[in-house]
Amino acid sequence: MSKIFHRTPIQIPLHASSGDGAYLIDQDGKYYLDGCGGAAVSCLGHSDQFVKQAMREQLDKLAYAHTGFFTSAPAETLAENLIARAPGELDKVYLVSGGSEAMETALKLARQYFIDKGEPKRHKVIARQQSYHGNTLGALATGGNKWRRAPYAPMLFETFHIAPCYEYRHRAPNESTEYYGKRAANELESEILRLGPESVMAFVAEPVVGATAGAVPAVEGYLKRIREICDQYGILLIFDEVMCGMGRTGSLFACDQDGVAPDIMSIAKGLGAGYQPIGAMLCSRNIADTITEGAGYFKNGHTYLGHPMAAAAANAVLHRLIHDGLVGRSKEMGDKLKAALEERFGEHPHIGDIRGRGLFIGLEIVEDRETKEPFDPARQLYAQLKQVALDKGLMIYPGNGTKDGMSGDHILLAPPFIITDDQ
Ligand code: PLP
């Protein structure tokens, strides 16, 4: 009997014993095609020789040094490489161990920025109903997933949630996509005015919504209008690219395709590609300067900040993504996969929507294609689909939004960028 307290203790998961390109192999030697990168993590597959070699070399030099004493070459290089490609005014990087830590850091940095700027009343966070920003208490408070939040509700700070940009269900039949995008974004302005602009600190959003919705991109113009509103009221715009960043949508950062830059951005998952646990928070020069010239320190910190091994792995991942053309491959293979899914399932009576960008694709499953009525959540269709796929040797990432009243069952596909046509 396993002594690990598994995430679903009533169901012990399969044992993974090795990895081979786009496949994971269990202890009985059965192969599973990783159609979802775990949770959109394994963008390079499971046996990337370049990343493994970079990790070996770093291990021979230095595994760890506490950032209270030292910085390190791999951490400095990673920060430079990320900033060289980051959107807008993003200018500094804070290296953490994963997505939730990156989001906690983003929220705390925003708060300290306003204190040091002399606007201490600003502390309220507005986010969206259909969102996931992590499991730690601050990130959980920010996310809109009611089911995950419910047991911890008394421990969460108050946040405010507006509707997501979700064209499939929320655009009215007589509305143009453009008009819908503006209407959805303008909900932010109404909420800011309701709360009092001087009390609002930040608006947080995933540019392409991942786990809670199944790869839902914002419609064109939505994020531009969001940016305008944040600027107008002096509110920080935080993008959570933990899942949709690092080439997943066919550009290095998802927001590149919307032509909108945030003040703060979180990344993780594809940054370490599963080879090391690592995340990062990027912030604008203005924010960094305000804190540097204000308190002079950021009241935050973790033991594994700027971990040299993790940074070395991430540098190698970034090299593969950019210099070996894998971001472009995410776009190319994503277009192919989407076209193949549309051909196969475009008219399927229970597939309501096929959406996404790059190798980040969602299928929404409905009882009735015409009315968009979801299946009864009690049937737990998403769990059945996961099991059927596993039995056939395929990993998919299923979800269900019915409990939030947002959507029905969906499947997220996020295979490694090295996936081939046959696979
Ligand atoms: N933000 C988003 C958009 C995510 O999808 C996730 C994880 O799924 C997180 C934050 C939290 O990241 P982690 O699980 O690495 O803490």
TrEMBL record:
One of its GO terms (molecular function) is transaminase activity. CDD domains: OAT_like. It comes from the Bacteria. Keywords: Aminotransferase, Pyridoxal phosphate, Transferase. The keyword Electron transport does not apply. Pfam families: Aminotran_3. Its cofactor is pyridoxal 5'-phosphate. The keyword Nucleotide-binding does not apply. InterPro entries: Aminotrans_3, Aminotrans_3_PPA_site, PyrdxlP-dep_Trfase, PyrdxlP-dep_Trfase_major, PyrdxlP-dep_Trfase_small. Belongs to the class-III pyridoxal-phosphate-dependent aminotransferase family. NCBIfam families: PRK07483.1. This is Aspartate aminotransferase family protein. The lineage of its organism: Bacteria, Pseudomonadati, Pseudomonadota, Alphaproteobacteria, Hyphomicrobiales.
